[in-house]
Write a structure and sequence with these properties.
The protein has 163 residues and is an all-alpha fold. The protein is built from five helices and two strands; from the N terminus they run H-H-H-H-E-E-H. It has a domain of 114 residues: FlgN-like (Methane Monooxygenase Hydroxylase, Chain G, domain 1, Up-down Bundle).
């Protein structure tokens, strides 16, 4: 995207960012549902879509950064508001609202992505624990200490593992 300093160019860029983030929010919701239902195909689709949307968002953010740098503004949130004021003047309020929506949606997507990551990590730990039991390996539940406070190994013999 060409670095442009006009209001229409920034409005288009911000709207593209918002639309892409909206798509990402839907993909993240679909991914969460797929994780809850252990739907491998939908998880794969979500991963592919997330990668494509992330690349698009990176390109849009790079364009926004170039525009701000060219206009000699910093890349922080307040500088974006100041930049909008500079190019839009009295009509800046509508662009401010779009920028706020972009910021809020980006935060929502970040939160949902972290939640999905936690679900994935928990599932991975449960799967690894189950495989460990099935393979007869010791499973640790954390560190244990004897009466003197010395760290002692903790393992258990699983009847399932012996079977």
């Amino acid at each position: 995207m060409k670095a442009s300093l006009d209001k229409a160019g920034i409005e288009f860029l911000l709207r593209e960012m918002y639309e892409t983030l909206s798509e990402l929010a839907m993909v993240l919701d679909n991914e969460h549902s797929a994780l809850e239902n252990s739907d491998i195909d939908k998880m794969h689709q979500a991963a592919v879509s997330k990668e494509q949307l992330s690349k698009k968002l990176e390109a849009l953010e790079t364009s926004r950064s170039k525009i701000l740098k060219k206009a000699r503004f910093h890349l922080d949130k307040q500088s974006m508001y100041n930049f909008i004021d500079t190019i839009a003047g009295s009509t800046a309020e509508s662009l401010h609202k779009i920028w706020e929506m972009v910021e809020e949606l980006a935060s929502t997507c970040d939160t949902q992505n972290k939640i999905n990551g936690i679900v994935i990590d928990n599932s991975k730990r449960q799967t690894q624990a189950a495989l460990s039991i099935l393979h007869g390996h010791a499973q640790t539940e954390g560190e244990l200490y004897d009466a003197e406070g010395t760290n002692v190994p903790h393992s258990f013999n699983s009847s399932l593992a012996r079977a």
